[in-house]
Amino acid sequence: MKRLFASILAPVLLVVLTACAQAPARGEAATTVFADTPTLDVVTLNLWHDKQDWPRRQDLIVRELARRQPDVILLQEVLQDPGLANQAQHLAERLGYQYRFFSVDPEGQAHRYGNAILTRHAIDASDVVKLQPLDDYRVAGWVRTEFNGRPLNVYVTHLHYKPEGGTIRARQIADVLAFIDRTGEQAPAIIGGDFNTGDGTPELAALSPRFSSAYRAAHPDQDVDAPAHTTLNPHMGHPAQRIDHVFFQTDAFRVDEARILFERADADGTWASDHFGLFVRLRPMR
User: Fold this and answer.
1) How many whole angstroms separate alpha carbon 112 and alpha carbon 104?
2) Hey, what's the torsion of the CAs at 164, 168, 170, 171, to 10 degrees?
3) pTM of the model
């Protein structure tokens, strides 16, 4: 009888122990449950257009991006001039990415300035919207691409720059959200760029709870508004502020990682930009 009981009990204990071993610890559900899901890697960087030694800075940027191979790259302060090929196009060609450039300047004009999205995946659709007020010359750009066999909406923007311009930024965020509602078609979305303000300021409050800041979510126990987390390059005379962000759709992703990029100069003292970059790794929830 003891042997019969043991033979029945052993498989049951094996099932229970296996289930316990696979169960996520408290606070680790997202990481454990979705551990086998491909991650979405995103980088945002303000290029600082063609300031200082752009060819050398470009090499630094390409080297790091080629090493990381992010799925999506969001760029701001992208320039093209008669003597300068479109910076986003040139970076995309060097990296082997698809790209879209977004500007208030009309197509065909020699001088154009704006934002861009680069992606390793095919671009199925794209559009641009001018942000209010029009004399601030700001835009938001959108592409629909595909990730893990499903559609993904990617948005890039660069908001009003004056510290006292919170009301203007709030109006621009409203325009961005309306743009998302018009183009989203229920596919998950990420938004990134240079917001010229912290991710906890009142002008960005309209993004919550629909969107969450990846950097803040990845560092829940840290004061991410402290100077150590700056994305403005203090070596260029900027105040230490974290104004570059990636926001993810809260019900579609969990953040695995978020870290500052390009926070060191090369051996000759050349910086990639007057901003640091931001790298984010997201994990789809479905």
Assistant:
1) 8
2) 170
3) 0.88
